[in-house]
Amino acid sequence: MDSRFDCCRYRASLDDLLADDVMEPVLRSAGLDQRGLRKMMMETARRIEHREQQGASSEAGE
Fold it and tell me: 1 to each of 4, 5, 6, 11, how far by Cα in Å?
């Protein structure tokens, strides 16, 4: 198989993405650093989970 398709088989982790040299200026332009991005992502995940739990509990009460 052609090696140019190998890039599509690998799913980068957050650590991999943050280790990329391009990410530092991108984060900086957004006013974040690696720790700030992780914190924001964790808070977003918590909110999504909380919303899903609320939706599940309201459906169970119907």
Answer: 9, 8, 9, 18
Cβ-based neighbours of 32, under 8 Å, separated by 6 or more: 40
At 14-49, the pLDDT tens digits run: 889 889 999 999 999 999 999 999 999 999 999 999
Nearest CA-CA partner of 14 in 31, 27, 5: 27
Residue 57 token pair = 């509990």
Residue-range domain boundaries for the chain? 15-60
CA distances from 6 to 21, 31, 47, 59 (A): 21, 33, 35, 43
